[in-house]
């Protein structure tokens, strides 16, 4: 735990540093101290290209005075180093009331996190062995596999957080992840497939899926896309599987519900609190308390316990995601969404595990009741404008639906629309729930997140395709269901950790 921090400051030292930070004025000050132990392994071109381990120690001190924020950081966590950083921050944020007496008291969290096999207790040789096993298996499966990239990473982060309101937190965060990316080629056609696994867990992640299983999934997806037909074009019904749509809820909806964007007028949801912004079937939740998920937190990076926040309740906008700064502006409490990449960054409102809640319908029946459309098994990357909600997303794995059955695979599909409008267009919600993992980027910072959704149907959405694609009424696109590959609905709906991505 945090006792292992080098030159670990005492509560008395932290109290003195906070008072020094407020000596020139200011309404609030806090300290974030971390020791971060990391390891990373990358395999490419059939050999280990990257093997890194390291320790980073530092502290960030923030002073808030009205609407202004001053931030200073240092990798000297001695009393002297912290006092110097506090003085720098204090001079940059003048104004506010007199310095109050600070009595630090420990804050507790209801979130339990259990790691069975700590990554810092696993040898680097064992970690390399997992990476090489995935690489070997992927390359052995098919001669059309031309490139394989495998990545492993873990982090053990110990933190101390204290603030002028008297809150004091000690926390330890452990995360592990494993990613396989395969490239397949057949003549001029090149396609990719990926699979990822990770969470607030240790080396026991490989009990869920072996490196070979992850490699198999990545290769299968790349090979499938080689034989896929061009995607159709036009407006149609879109059924998204449980593991496909995390990108949609995160990007097209989640960022617009972060309080800083709302307060700056950069969110399509600004001024709509209490209004109907989605179908009554849609409930959107950000939940940092879900066991083992990649965005799960015991505390956020401001020392606020992880929370479950209902943002949209049966279609009605009920809340936004707040850090301490944005919450103070509205005279309310933080929702536990203040997050930062490291001590070098100030916290901002960020998502944790964001999801559309499961409904009560059988996912297979949703597909059977869809006459024509697109079934999205996996989502790729995309872009969204948080100001108006417009988005464009790539489909990494998709299939034609015809007469209630999943037919052949298609490649090159994109989904184009508007986030709030799409939420209104959701007319069926399944009783399953699939998670995906990722790294969310905002203001130059990356933080670990998960997103999830059940199988759901969007009644009408614009699907873009590639040259040679056609609408779902084209017999060439949809009429040869069994000639390429028949896939069971249950197989396609099987959920799991889907991908690692930059959001």
From TrEMBL:
The Metalloprotease TldD/E N-terminal domain, residue ranges:
29-93
Q: Cite the InterPro entries for this sequence.
A: Metalloprtase-TldD/E_C, Metalloprtase-TldD/E_cen_dom, Metalloprtase-TldD/E_N, Peptidase_U62_metallo, TldD, TldD/PmbA_N, TldD/PmbA_sf
GO terms (BP aspect):
proteolysis
One of the entry's Gene Ontology molecular-function terms is: metallopeptidase activity
- What positions does the domain Metalloprotease TldD/E C-terminal occupy? 234-465
Keyword set, alphabetical order: Hydrolase, Metalloprotease, Protease
Q: Which branch of life, at top level?
A: Bacteria
The entry's cellular-component GO terms read: cytosol
Protein family: Belongs to the peptidase U62 family.
Q: What is this protein called?
A: TldD/PmbA family protein
Q: Which classification does the entry list for the species?
A: Bacteria, Bacillati, Bacillota, Clostridia, Eubacteriales
